[in-house]
């Protein structure tokens, strides 16, 4: 009988889910709106719609199979407790609420999903860690015991693998590489601090860089006629491919900051490779080349020319579902 894992990816806009086998083949997938439940104040209704939709998708398959587990990738998800804790992009306090109840920002999703899938393993981690495990099970990190995964989307996520194991830390929140400080008193970050790496190295960060450059450079640029509201990082990649000087400088600055930060990370875990994943990574050489150059420039001598900088092997529209389902396959491998 075919064995399948159910992978769930919870984003601020949508929640995607699908049934995946151990080879990474997707047999069915679907989506519900996360945004439909603003502030996550109607969390029980969200769980009800999610579980009903998952059962409906599972029932749609035309063959018998064994569901071996449910893996979940979500922002601020704690692997140890199975609870989503204070997720900024899913839950914000209503305006004017003076003394909010902190417990309202703790969502025991693993426990709630188990109620709908009794007897099935349910595991959850944050979305970047899920992508990291997906890379290890389905992608270019197969067989690697030490590597770093950097996810470049709206923000910067990361996952660290050492000796074949995800590093979760004692509280489940290890690996917040996007929040190392790279510019003292720099750009304001959503976490409340200033100068965090993700404020410069992310789709949002490079957009901010491009607009700062347009204010200080006199060079002509195809980006100048685009309003901030209509602007996205893909436009910078397109402009760079046309030789646009502002776009090329934006990628150089982004690569410089990322490369220097990665050189520091290498001194801690000595990875075999570093993988770049997500929308910004699709810029290819415009991001990879400056990042590689600056990483080697600032690398401690003992690590020079040892660490490969590679694209993710799971760059597809289903990558987040694959990553979440990989939690289950990894668990099964460890239990064998």
Word description of this protein:
The protein is an alpha/beta fold. The chain has 2 domains: about 1-135 and about 320-335, Nucleotidyltransferase, domain 5 (2-Layer Sandwich); about 145-310, ATPase, nucleotide binding domain (Nucleotidyltransferase, domain 5), CATH 3.30.420.40. The chain is built from 8 helices and 13 strands. The chain has helices at about 45-60, 110-115, 125-140, 205-215, 235-240, 245-270, 285-295, 320-335, and strands at about 1-10, 15-20, 25-35, 65-75, 75-80, 85, 105, 120-125, 145-150, 155-160, 165, 275, 310. The protein has a 5-stranded mixed β-sheet with strand order 3-2-1-4-8, with helices on both faces. A hairpin with a 2-residue loop joins β10 and β11. α3 (about 125-140) packs across α8 (about 320-335). The radius of gyration is 21 Å and the shape is globular. The two termini are about 20 Å apart. Residues about 95-100 have low confidence and may be disordered.
User: What is the total tally of β strands?
Assistant: 13
Radius of gyration: 21 Å
Task: Give the N-to-C terminal Cα separation.
Answer: 18 Å
Largest sheet: 5 strands, mixed
Brief description of this entry?
The chain has eight helices and 13 strands. With 336 residues, it is an alpha/beta fold. Helix 5 packs across helix 6.
């Amino acid at each position: 009988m075919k064995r399948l894992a159910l992978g769930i990816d919870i984003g601020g806009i949508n929640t995607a889910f699908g049934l995946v086998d151990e080879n990474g083949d997707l047999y069915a997938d679907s989506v519900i709106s996360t945004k439909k439940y603003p502030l996550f104040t109607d969390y029980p209704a969200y769980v009800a719609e999610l579980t009903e939709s998952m059962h409906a998708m599972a029932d749609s398959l035309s063959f018998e199979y064994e569901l071996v587990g449910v893996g979940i990738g979500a922002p601020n998800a704690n692997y140890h407790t199975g609870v989503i804790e204070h997720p900024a992009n899913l839950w914000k306090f209503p305006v004017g609420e003076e003394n909010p109840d902190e417990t309202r920002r703790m969502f025991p999703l693993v426990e709630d999903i188990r109620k709908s899938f009794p007897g099935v393993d349910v595991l959850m981690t944050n979305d970047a860690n899920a992508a990291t495990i997906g890379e290890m099970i389905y992608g270019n990190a197969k067989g690697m015991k030490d590597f770093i995964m950097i996810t470049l989307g709206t923000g910067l996520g990361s996952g660290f693998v050492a000796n074949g194991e995800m590093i979760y830390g004692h509280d489940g929140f290890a690996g917040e590489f996007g929040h190392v400080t790279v510019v003292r008193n720099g750009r304001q970050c959503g976490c409340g601090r200033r100068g965090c790496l993700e404020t410069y190295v992310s789709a949002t960060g490079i957009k901010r860089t491009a607009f700062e450059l347009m204010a200080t450079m006199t060079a002509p640029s195809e980006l100048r006629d685009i309003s901030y509201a209509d602007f996205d990082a893909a436009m910078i990649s397109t402009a760079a491919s046309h030789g646009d000087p502002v776009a090329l400088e934006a990628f150089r600055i982004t690569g410089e900051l990322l490369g220097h930060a990665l050189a520091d990370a290498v001194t801690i875990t000595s990875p075999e490779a570093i993988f770049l994943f997500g929308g910004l990574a699709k810029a290819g050489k415009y991001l990879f080349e400056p990042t590689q150059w600056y990483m080697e420039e600032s690398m401690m001598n003992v690590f020079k020319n040892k660490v490969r900088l590679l694209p993710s092997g799971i760059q597809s529209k289903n990558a987040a579902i694959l990553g979440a389902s990989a939690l289950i396959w990894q668990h099964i491998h460890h239990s064998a």
